[in-house]
Specification:
Layout (H helix, E strand, L loop, with lengths): L1 H10 L2 H4 L9 H12 L5 H31 L1
Helix pairs in contact: 3-4
């Protein structure tokens, strides 16, 4: 895991630490996907998108946390 963190940090630029979700999917749209999932009315493509979000979101948070830490120690 430590090697993965170093590889992730090596590829990060300071702007990535301040990035947000990609424009097509903001927080409101993710909440809508969760609601549609609860109602069991997700299309197959929406289900794939929600699965990807649930898989990648913790990794993005971890990378951003490490980027913030790296930026704080670099200054």
């Amino acid at each position: 895991m430590k090697n993965c963190n170093h590889l992730a940090l090596a590829s990060l630029k300071p702007s990535i630490a301040h990035s947000r979700n990609s424009p097509p999917r903001d927080d409101r749209q993710i909440v809508e996907l969760f609601d549609r999932n609860k109602s069991d009315i997700l299309s197959q493509s929406e289900a794939v998108e929600l699965d990807r979000y649930l898989l990648l979101e913790p990794w993005v948070r971890l990378a951003k946390a490490h980027a913030y830490k790296h930026l704080q120690t670099a200054v």
